Amino acid sequence: MPDYKFCVSLKISHPKMEPENISKELNLTPHISHKIGEPRITPNGRRLKGTHESMFWTFDFCNGERLDAEDILFEEFIASRNSELTKHKGFFDSLIKSGGTVEYFIGWFSADSINMNIYLDPPVLKSTADLGISIVLCAYPSAHET
Prior knowledge:
Blueprint: E1 4-14, H1 19-26, E2 32-34, E3 39-41, E4 47-51, E5 55-60, E6 67-68, H2 74-85, H3 89-97, E7 101-110, H4 122-130, E8 134-140
Parallel strand pairs: 7-8
Antiparallel strand pairs: 1-5, 1-6, 1-7, 2-5, 3-4
């Protein structure tokens, strides 16, 4: 069996759009969002220099948890999300054409090994590409998962 855990967020940014428009269109409440011109603040509340130059919106599909590949394979999870998001393809297309980005941000955590692999077959890759969703993979190899 695969020996990894993962979490996936849908992240959207745009140079002009308001986060509320994305929430309304997708019928999802973001876990994190900020508007253009808002002060930059770290997750622990420390103020940074400057303001946000674009809107940022993110929804955590895993509610802050790590999913275990023994329960659901990453590729099955992505295929399922793609299926759910297909009804928003037109919205994603217009968002991207007007300068925005849509991505799956993936945290990928090893469990007891640094040998981790996933297999994204052509239909999953195609459905992700058809939605205009980029895949950003951040791997955290560790011999000791906590």
